[in-house]
Amino acid sequence: MDRALREEIDQLHAELCQGLADSKRIAILYALSDGPKNVSEIMETLEMSRATATRHLKVLRESAMVNTERDGVSIYYSLADKRVILALNLLREVLAGILSQRKALAEAIL
Amino acid sequence: MDRALREEIDQLHAELCQGLADSKRIAILYALSDGPKNVSEIMETLEMSRATATRHLKVLRESAMVNTERDGVSIYYSLADKRVILALNLLREVLAGILSQRKALAEAIL
DNA sequence: CTAATATATACGTGTGAACGTAAATAAGAA
DNA sequence: TTCTTATTTACGTTCACACGTATATATTAG
């Protein structure tokens, strides 16, 4: 694989990660892992404004991590690929490791 | 788990993802998955300026995804948790899925 | 068609990230 | 100490993101 190709893939890879790099979008993805939801359900469950929910869903849709399906007035958003949740779970384990290491540090001070 | 706690965890989770949300940092992490490297090796292998390499390594160090160890004049950076690579690989699979879907779309046009 | 509801967007603002260039710090060699 | 190499940071610029508020679009009900 030549350099230009690798850089382009890394760029797309980074854009996918950028889609995950917001606490509200992470909350939305976990909420959708329980099943499809419309904007109203998301904004109520996660306590964010309608505009905020819509905008974050747009980001997730544009990065192809969620799909949409209209049902009458409502538009239901669903998770496009469960591996996104698996990746998030792995990173959550990494986070737990970091925090427990910091906890050990904190205790060593005393 | 109450709301404030969940939001704080999601925030930390997002900051970890933010650390992955750059093509050069992704390239660095994959390079380090082959073994520890110093700044010079990274800047040469990945063709980026010294300052850029240092700054990205600083981001990765501050998010605790890499560790450092001094060896004489050089400072060697190493991957702190291999699960980061596992998560990146999962997301790369997701990316492959998205691209193959787009390829199918492209072919359907003709 | 008109009203009502669901979703999406425009505008303005504030904040933070990434970069190149140049200067600063740190450790080892002479 | 002085020189050299490795790493890091400061400065200034540019660009992208997230948000609240207000407005626009789209679908269904009456």
Molecular structure report:
With 110 residues, chain A is α+β, with helices and mostly antiparallel strands. Chain A has helices at 3-20, 23-32, 39-45, 50-62, 83-109, and strands at residues 37-38, 66-71, 74-79. A three-stranded antiparallel sheet of chain A has the order 1-3-2. In chain A, strand 2 and strand 3 (74-79) form a beta hairpin. In chain A, helix 3 crosses helix 4. The longest helix of chain A has 27 residues, at 83-109. The radius of gyration of chain A is 17 Å and the shape is flat. The A-B interface holds A 3, 6-7, 9-18, 20-27, 47, 64-65, 81, 83-84, 86-88, 90-95, 97-99, 101 and B 3, 6-7, 9-18, 20-27, 47, 64-65, 81, 83-84, 86-88, 90-95, 97-99, 101. Chain A binds a DNA duplex (30 and 30 nucleotides) through helix 4.
Based on DSSP secondary structure assignment, what is the total number of beta strands of chain A? Answer: 3
Straight-line N-to-C gap of chain A: 52 Å
Strand order of the largest sheet of chain A: 1-3-2
Oligomeric state of shown chains: homodimer
